[in-house]
Structure formats: C-alpha cells, structure tokens
From TrEMBL:
Pfam families noted in UniProt: NepR
Ranges for domain Anti-sigma factor NepR: 28-61
Chain segments annotated as coiled-coil in the UniProt record: none
Chain intervals for the UniProt region annotation (Disordered): 1-29, 59-81
Listed InterPro entries: NepR (IPR041649)
Low complexity bias locations: 70-81
Protein name: Anti-sigma factor NepR domain-containing protein
Length: 81
C-alpha cells in the first residue's frame, strides 16, 4: 500500500498543471479505487468477537442504568446542570 501511495504522489506531481494544484481525474480514480478496496477488506473482516461481546455488555448495562453516589453532591456532572 505504501508503494501505491508513493506511485500516486509521483504521478500526481508529474500530471498536475504547475501552479494550479489538484489531481487529475485519472489520479482521483486510482485513489478512489484503492480506498474502495481497503474499505471492502475492512468490511469483510467483520466485527471481532471481543468487540461483539463488549457491545452486548454495554447494551445490557444500558437496559439497567447503574447509579453511583446516589443522592451525593458529586454526581459526575462536574458542576453542570
């Protein structure tokens, strides 16, 4: 992936109009293709089991609110009401 980025930077510096900046449509297309490929790879990996378990635990805690310092003056609002 690092080599692809170096190639894109090199090609971009050769292909852009001096003083105008920006990327050519070809470079934009190649970057888009690489980003889609990376995104697809991440999506295919799915959610790791430990994250799924953590989400389940957090959902279960959300169903039964946990209250600390009930009636105390320090109720985690840091002076904000």
């Amino acid at each position: 992936m690092e080599q692809v980025m170096k190639d894109l930077k090199s090609q971009a510096s050769k292909s852009t109009t001096p003083g105008k900046g920006g990327l050519t449509p070809e470079i934009q297309s190649r970057i888009g293709h690489q980003l889609r490929a990376m995104y697809d790879d991440v999506v295919r990996q799915g959610v790791p089991d430990r994250f799924a378990e953590l989400i389940k635990k957090l959902d279960a805690q959300g169903a039964t609110p946990h209250v600390e310092n009930e009636g105390g003056s320090n109720d985690n609002n840091n002076g904000r009401d």
